[in-house]
Amino acid sequence: MEGDNSQVEMKLSSDMDEETGGNGAGEHLNHNSNRKPYVAQKLGRTPKNLCFMAVATLLIFIIGYLIGYLVHRKKDLAPTCDDSMVRYDDGAVIKTGAAPLMNWDKVKNLLAEQVSADKFDSVFREFSSDNHRAGSLGDEVLGEKVVKRFREYGMKIWTDEHFVKVQDAPASGSNSFSYKGKEESPTGFLSYSANGTITGAVLYAFYGEENNLRLLKSRNVNMTGRVILVKTGRISFAEKVANAAKMGASAVLIYPDPSKASIGGSTQLYGHVHLGSGDPYTPGFPSFNHTQFPPINSSGLPKILAQTITLDMAISILRQLGGANAPEEWESPNKLGDDSDAITLRVDNVLREKKIVNVFGVIKGFVDADRYVVIGAQRDAWGPGFAASTVGTSVLVELARSISDMVKNGGFKPRRSIVFASWSAGEYGSVGATEWLEGYLSSLSMKAFSYINLDGVVTGQKYFKVAASPLLHGLIESTLKEVNSPNKAGSLFSEFAKDNMESNVLEPLKLDNAAYPFLAFSGIPSASFRFTSEDSDYLYFGTTLDTREKLNAATGNKVPQLAEAATRVAGHMVLRLVHNHLLRLDVEKYNKIIRNRVVQINNKVHSVLRLQPQLLSKVLTMQWLMSAYGSYSRASSKLATDIQDSNMEDIEMCRTLNDRIMTVERNFLSPYVSPRDTPFRHILLGSGPHTLQGLYGHLEALRMDHPEADAKLFRNQFRPRHLDHPELRQLTGRGRVVS
Questions:
Q1: Which one has a higher pLDDT value, 692 or 478?
Q2: Which residues are in the Transferrin receptor-like dimerisation domain (predicted)?
């Protein structure tokens, strides 16, 4: 570290990092080992030297015998996870660095004493800002406030600077479009859109999902060169644009969902359309200052134009569309549009380089200080961003204060470390967080065992939703049973998850969630949760209407109470992960998911063989996939058995078992795809043709005889190449997954 500027040393081997104890948290959490060189001298065969050699040999034998005797005695008195010091004999007390095990009920009570809804109003005021876009002065000021808070709590602090490229609105202030003689200039924009001017016929496509566009194609609707008009919701802006580009469209216009009429007819929308995360101009590499990389762009950058428009603008276009009626399935009164509905769109976004700063504070563990959970929240927003960033940042600093005080004054000693992170450039696609992951990927994958995301934790009060790695589902369930609901008497579990947690609480982790790159890119088990009033995203995300007043209306003026509950949820999860002997990660949770995917693919293969037998050869077999599932199931069961048979009071045994648990998620990352072309490499929860879901989708396309389906390509993707097949190797791991 040099001043506030971060430096990075690029290493070619993660093994080297493991040896030296370096880690992705700026080497603030080292677990070092000391090595001393030795010097050998060649001795001559003189009588004097031979005598010395005989005496030395005898001394070495005696010393070795004594060491062996002492080691044998100390084995029975090995340092345990429960003791901060151990007594090897009547006169010597030796410190081990271990933390005494505090009763979990006492830990919960300490946290309960610290967290209060009354404290949040002042924190909200401190971290509220009308203008704090990434890289702006407002963003920098908020970052300094976070640093000040962490310093007051006595935490170790450091910052991480990145120089990233982002697209902002044109110098003129707006892009424009012209439709049937009327020109409009929306001030909202979509970062990372292609620039230029195009003219094409408008085509209404509902939400722009793949099934929406396939339905249009099945009705012989030509999408080549068309300007696709879609509404917000269900999938991200980036996915809408990518889906349209696959169908040959020339541009995409996105407008607010009219069912959310309270957003207003003139509200502008902001967002990005990079199908990925991080700086798309340095894919797979960190954007440190003066770092030179080949001029390669992310494959997720769109090659077509994309622009947001207001609801009033969209209604004006929809009313004038001709052509056929929209499909009945859409329950929409709109027409699809025909060749006469021409529109001209001009996009002139400006590419700028910005300095962004991530802020970190750490509470060091007392046993495994170099193993840590990361909890983070984005700091920037398009406008006020009260729900998008202010609440999450407030929860972050309040939780940091609470746990710091528990350590300093409550006697709590976490076994593992806790890293608190305030990210910048979250609105551009989790840029700050992803650049940190890319900068320290090799060490983070070995030392960071979980990530908890605090973005958008409060957007309502009717529902409670969680998107997380299956490894964390058990921890989430126990947390909901321990945290009281802010709405009524009883726990969060009894209010939201009592009937069926899987259907009522759990939801998929989406591409635009800040926790997604931690899980699908880095293989770190991650979780994101929120109190919400609807299943879809918050109405005012990506607008300048995201204010305290709007959130008060959505929550019945219970924002502080809901923020308190969110702090307790995050706090219970974090404290469980750093308090227990073993990490609360259930490796057997993946058994059901793998089994379900295998069954789905097996059924789909037989369906294709019945309908299109000529497409798939006889050599196509499910045996390798069945074997892969069996291998994972046996390996996870073996780890569970090893845990039961192990001495949980042995510090080194705990560390060894925890390291085995940590490798599970990481080994679901396919090593056969490029981070440039396919950054989200997780074969179960990632995105791309390398995933099991990708194989299933390709099978469905073959069954429907879709023009884009390629039987030869599918056989190459699916055919087992002994143990070198990506999916098989990742599931069985040649014994690497959990055994």
A1: 478
A2: 621-691
DSSP annotation string for 228-244: EEEESBSB-HHHHHHHH
The C-alpha torsion from 231 through 233 and 238 to 242, rounded to 10°, is: -60
Give the residue among 628, 513, 535, 639 at the shortest CA–CA distance from 585: 639
pLDDT tens digits for range 504-560: 999 999 999 999 999 999 999 999 999 999 777 899 999 999 999 999 999 999 999
pLDDT bracket for residue 698 (50, 70, 90): confident
Q: What is the greatest pairwise CA distance in the chain?
A: 110
Higher pLDDT, 465 or 172: 465
Tokens standing for residue 409: 């004054």
Among candidates 594, 640, 612, 611, which has minimal Cα distance to 732?
A: 594
Closest CA to 386 of 132, 169, 119, 109: 132
Which residues are within 8 A (CB) of 386 and not within 5 positions of it... i.e. 6 or more apart? 124, 128, 546, 547, 548, 550, 551
Count of Cβ atoms closer than 10 Å to residue 136 Cβ:
16
Half-sphere exposure of 627 (CA within 13 A, CB side): 14
Amino acid in the structure at residue 123: V
Query: pLDDT exceeding 90 applies to what percent of the chain?
Result: 67
Distances (CA, A) of 199 to 237, 245, 250, 340, 736: 21, 15, 8, 12, 54
Amino acid identity at 6: S
Pick the closest to residue 101 from 87, 83, 113 (CA basis): 83
pLDDT at 57: 81
Closest CA to 432 of 6, 3, 13: 6
DSSP state of 650: B
Q: What are phi and psi of 92, to 5 degrees?
A: -120, 125
Spatial distance between the Cα atoms of 250 and 345, rounded to a whole number of angstroms = 10
Which of 416, 343, 491 has its CA nearest to residue 661? Answer: 416
Average pLDDT, the chain: 86
- Rounded to whole angstroms, how far apart are CA atoms 620 and 614? 12
Q: How many angstroms from the chain centroid is the CA of residue 278?
A: 12
Give the closest residue to 584 by CA, choosing from 525, 529, 517, 501.
Answer: 525
Nearest CA to 166 out of 290, 255, 298, 269 is that of 298
Would you say the C-alpha torsion 118, 123, 126, 131 has a positive or negative sign?
A: negative
Name the nearest CA neighbour of 599 among 483, 696, 669, 473.
696
**Nearby residues of 516 by Cβ (< 8 Å), 6 or more positions away:** 277, 430, 509, 510, 526, 680
Residues 202, 206, 212, 218, CA torsion sign:
negative
Are the CB atoms for 459 and 551 separated by under 8 Å? yes
Pairing label, strands 271-272, 368-378 = unpaired
Distance, in Å, from the CA atom of 372 to the CA atom of 443, rounded to the nearest integer, reads: 11
In the block, tokens 């590419």 appear at: 351
As a whole number of angstroms, the distance between CA 452 and CA 377 comes to 9
Closest CA to 625 of 655, 591, 645, 602: 602
- Secondary element (H or E) of residue 178: strand 176-179
User: Bridge-partner residues for 41, per DSSP?
Assistant: none
Question: Please, what is the Cα angle at 372 between 369 and 378, to 5 degrees?
Answer: 135
Listing DSSP states for 468-498 in one string gives: E-GGGHHHHHHHHHHSBPSSSSSBHIIIIIS
Q: How far apart are CA 127 and CA 149, in angstroms?
A: 11
Q: Residue 259 has what pLDDT? A: 86
Distance separating the N- and C-terminal Cα atoms of the chain: 38
Distance from CA of residue 480 to its chain's centroid? 21
User: To which residue do tokens 């009164």 refer?
Assistant: 333
**Could you tell me if 175 and 307 are in contact, meaning their C-beta atoms sit under 8 angstroms apart?**
yes
Locate 112 and state its tokens.
């309960």
Rounded Cα gap, residues 620 and 630, in angstroms: 19
Count CB neighbours of 143 within 10 A. 22
Nearest alpha carbon to residue 82 among 94, 63, 100: 100
